[in-house]
Specification:
CATH architecture of the largest domain: Sandwich
Largest sheet: 4 strands, antiparallel
Number of helices: 8
Strand content: 15-25%
CATH topology of the largest domain: Jelly Rolls
Strand order of the largest sheet: 1-8-3-6
CATH class of the largest domain: Mainly Beta
Distance between the termini: 38 Å
Helix content: 25-40%
Shape: globular
């Protein structure tokens, strides 16, 4: 686990800038204050591994900033990027609840800041604040729901719409839903992105080229300039964010 040195916490969970979108958002104040006392801030460099298959569960991690990629190995030895964790999302909940080794690899796709609750503290925390245990269960259920929704999208939405949804999600990390001229850097390779979308890399290249031809984006390697977030949202078939 390639952590930078721990950072001093200047504010608690109740003041966290992503708390309103966090898996921990629904905790009552007393439970959030307990979390604040036991958590430790950590930073990961791009490319660093948070945990890998077979690693024992060391605790829980809540992403404060940056993007973490979740990879899973197939029995034939190949590895696929199966999900992305954005700010506010919790990692390690399934292994924690099962008291089992991790089955996936968590890799920092960008510089990442996160809060860690060590396993021994997390165990005490779930006893002192049952709401935390329920939040972890709900996190696992939400991940299952998201996987089912993604399967539905694969069947019901066009490849273009699903690509636009991915780009729109990246836009909203740092910009509002009406922003124009948004500069993005794809956090994954085109090969990984194609795998996540369930299409061939050549098809992804054609889709990106068509978005560029239509004036929605400008491409330069991994850098994508989005002309209008609202226009991208419309292409994705999404409702306006409020």
């Amino acid at each position: 686990m390639a952590f930078d040195p721990p950072a001093t916490c200047l504010s608690g969970c109740t003041a966290c800038k992503v708390r309103h979108v966090s898996d921990w958002a629904g905790l009552p104040r007393h439970a959030a204050e307990i979390v604040s006392r036991v958590r430790v801030r950590r930073s990961l460099r791009r490319g660093a591994t948070l945990f890998a298959p077979g690693d024992s569960n060391a605790g829980l991690y809540c992403v404060s900033s940056g993007i973490v990629g979740i990879r899973m190995a197939h029995e034939n030895g190949t590895e696929a990027l199966i999900a992305l964790a954005f700010p506010g999302e919790t990692l390690g909940a399934r292994a924690f609840l099962r008291n089992s080794p991790h089955r996936t690899t968590a890799e920092a796709l960008t510089p990442v800041d996160l809060c860690m609750i060590q396993r021994r503290d997390a165990l005490r925390l779930t006893q002192q604040a049952p709401e935390v245990h329920m939040a972890l269960v709900e996190r696992c259920l939400a991940a299952m729901d998201a996987a089912q929704t993604e399967l539905l999208h694969s069947a019901a939405l066009s490849n273009r719409a699903r690509l636009c949804r991915f780009l729109h999600r990246l836009c909203l990390l740092d910009h509002d839903d009406e922003a124009c001229a948004v500069q993005l850097r794809l956090p994954v390779s085109r090969h990984d992105l194609a795998g996540m979308l369930g299409i061939q890399p050549e098809s992804l290249s054609r889709l990106l080229g068509k978005l560029a031809d239509d004036g929605l984006v400008t491409l330069s390697g991994r850098h994508v300039m989005v002309a209008s977030v609202a226009a991208l949202r419309a292409e994705a078939g999404l409702e306006p964010c409020h």
